[in-house]
Amino acid sequence: MKKRWIIILAAVAAAGVIGGCSNPQKSGVSALEKGDYEEALADFEEMTQSGDAAEGYRGLGMTYYEMEDYENALESFRQAAENGAKQTIQMYNLMGICAMQTEDYKSALDYIQSGLALMSISDGADKADEDLVQEMKYNEIICYEKQADWENAKEKVTEYLEAYPDDETVQKEAEFLETR
């Protein structure tokens, strides 16, 4: 997850450079990298008020996510999308994880599936790495299980194991689902 986190931070910083954002974004990303969440929140909040709301909310979402404040992270990511942030596989994954952490498995499933759907239309700039795809497909199974949708969970486990046959955790999930 750390590798992906660095990639996401780099994407936010690059978006700011490309978009001509000023110091709050650079300062916010730097503060976030250092773990200075209060400074990061202040910088990203300033961005939401000063014209780059989409990236400001995305930064707030990542900061809250890192703070394990999943409700505020999810709301910030939603605000980022509403304010025109580029919708990426990575953002949908984070939204799905946040929804799972708040036990809203229906919404989590929607976010995960929306992110996975982007894979077919994604260009090279934000293509998901295979570890991210695997994580999202695993979380998709968990969301179905948490909603007691055993048939869809079984179908997704079968698809998952065709792609990742050596995953012992999901092999155990498959055994569990056979009892349902």
UniProtKB/TrEMBL annotation:
The alphabetical list of record keywords is: TPR repeat
* Signal peptide start-end: none
> PROSITE patterns this protein is in?
PROKAR_LIPOPROTEIN, TPR, TPR_REGION
- Which InterPro entries does the entry link to? TPR-like_helical_dom_sf, TPR_rpt
- The TPR repeat boundaries are 54-87
Gene3D superfamilies attached here? Tetratricopeptide repeat domain
Check the record and name the SUPFAM superfamilies matching this protein.
TPR-like (SSF48452)
Superkingdom to which the source organism belongs:
Bacteria
The name this protein goes by in its record = Tetratricopeptide repeat protein
| Taxonomic path | Bacteria, Bacillati, Bacillota, Clostridia, Lachnospirales
